[in-house]
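Possible regression after last week's pipeline update?

I re-ran a chain I had predicted before the update to compare outputs. Posting the input and the new output here so someone can diff against the archived version. Not blocking, just want to make sure nothing changed silently.
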Amino acid sequence: MRQYAGDMICLIKKEFQNRKFFFQSAKKESTSLNLRILLAANLAAILILLGFIMLTPYIIKDWQPTPYHIGFIPALLFCFVLSLIYYIRGSWKYRAVTALCVLFSIVLLTFSILLDTVGTPGGPGTFLPMMLIAIPALFTLPFRISYALILLAEFLYIATVFIYKNNVLGQYDIFRSVVALMFSIVIANIIMSLKVRDYSIQTKYKQQSMTDGLTNILNKEASFEAFRKYLQTYNPHVTCTLIIMDLDNFKTLNDTRGHAAGDNVLQKVGVLLLETFRHIDIVGRFGGDEFVVLMKGSDSFDIVKEKISAMQQHLRQIGQEEADLQMSASFGVVLVTDQEVESHSLFLQAVAALYDAKRKGRATYVMKTYQT
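New output (post-update):
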């Protein structure tokens, strides 16, 4: 029993950690989705309310819409127009979209309470229980926001029921709202768990598609796309260093020691690159024995020279450990200092520097400044 309780606690902790990661990393996706759902839900609420007002007199004899039914329509229209204007503007912000979702939820909950109490003091409550279930499941919001609204609405509803309804009818309304609140918590947690799981799976597959299977660093396509985005973000004031590294005599290693030994060396080089450069730098494999690094915000000759020297030393150790061979690499380096950069041109200049280094011999580097 104690082991079971411990496993449950670990499972709950892991679930909360996954949700925290989800809200941090999927902020852009959830913001876009929330805004689109908000527009659709707002429009649907207006149409449902209009349909309710038109059809109810044919179902319930002598029924007439109250001022709260009528007032509900312009309140929903205001939320819809406000959300639509923000949608059309583009450049959606998480806090702004969250505020719009909260405003829409407050309108729904407020008028649901009024319709179920002040608007129909002699009839059963209908709207609020549905809203208690629907709203937390509708938007992707942290529970502290969703259930702050829901619990406050439940408290206000109970207080209003005591004021405007008789005891017999009121106790059934309160009971239905409490049951709806319990269902809401269960359903919202299930939906959120499914969203987190789906996002984790999508993230995993996305990472796999961007990663070189052998070295566990970025592949060619992902590397170049990362370069392009970085340069696009900081142009026309880019400062960086592009390094292209090519292992010397790697074909000889494969021919004399076999491809398994070559793969082991490539794996070790991938680890070496990740350990040598910062986590913010872009590190990738361009295929074969060619690797590439973009050092963000750095144009220091001394730092690059120091890292190349350290890598040559580690490469010698890797060669001795894995294949009992002398391992080294040639480097082509281009420094960019506060200037506008075209990604393809930068890459070609680094390749040219690498070819110059290869012509000089093994274990060498050629360093140049970027030319526009």
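Follow-up from reviewer: compared with the archived run. Strands lie at 238-247, 282-287, 290-296, 329-339, 365-369. Marking as no regression found.
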